[in-house]
Design a protein that fits this description.
2 domains; Rossmann fold; six-stranded parallel β-sheet; about 45% helix; globular; about 15% strand; about 400 residues
Amino acid sequence: MRLLVVLSRVPYPLEKGDKLRAYHLVSRLAERHEVFLFCLSDQPIDPEHVKHLQGICQHIEVVHLPRWRIVLRLITAAFSRLPFQVAYFHQRHAHRRFNEVIATFKPEHVICQLVRTTEYVRHHYELPKTLDYMDTLSKGMERRTETAPFYLRPLLRTETHRLIAYENLMFDLFDNNIIISAQDRDFLYHPDRDHVAVIPNGVDLSYFSPREGERHHDLLFTGNMNYPPNIDSVLFLARRVLPLVRRERPGTSLLISGVDPSPQVKELARLDPLISVSGWVKDIRDSYANAKIFCAPMQIGTGLQNKLLEAMAMRIPCITSSLANNAVGAPAGEAILIGNEPEEYAAHILRLLSDPGERDRIAANGNRFVRSHFDWDQAASRLETLVTATTPVRPR
């Protein structure tokens, strides 16, 4: 089958959640189908990264989105009902090239990741298509509105309402809809949301495997450190949780590891010698292997936290919020520890730091849980079943 996959980013290297999901699903689909990877990009791309993807997919096209066109597109979107982050990734020259690919490649099915890309296929009614919502962008925007500065809230509320309407519209235009977790499916506002297929992420267990060695940092947080939910989480950890821990253990250290740390995140390391901000690292496993405890007190955001799966796969005890674990589904108190208030997180951290046996128990249970529940091959197989099923094109 000829599959056209439309992405808002080049899915390599694997430093962001949407890239990780796209990479693993596409690489497995490409083993049995002819895949054309159509990627949008708002920044220069390393040719070596494209070369790597060429070894996986039969065809790849990267369309650059110039900044000046993005700005112009956002200005025009202000006078429409199109969500800004859909407008951000939709440009006429890219759409023309997309239509050329449709005409020459003649795909039998189109897979779009995130509603950011769906404007390109919106009027191709003749094509069977699958939308991977991944997570519910409207819910994530709604949560960001609650904690945003007052002067940004009107804009974020507008974007939330636009995303809700657009997500519902795309729901009806696609033959299949998939999402990363049952929690995110329930956040959709469409009345038929129960029909959305839940296909969770996996974890590469051969890559993320336990390591022995000295652990120099007490706590670790990883992720795209320019992503608002991650920034919010690590600020919560450093400013509200860590001071409580240090009342009993003054020397407790924190490593923040991930691409593009924001100025707020960098400031944490400048003000506190026991906080390290690594920025992008070539091998994120080195960061996991260097810490005693993984702590991700996610307060906002949606989706499945891949960082938790990776840490558990590497046999590191994890502490997170109910919000994050609702998507993971790990047994609380056995395979993962749950906090909500700063005092709860601090208590968990202090107990694990003082009790190596308890650290080992939570880590071992977490490792077993991930191994039994999160598998990329199973996720790709479920997606393939949806895509290859005979789906009549609905009359418009």
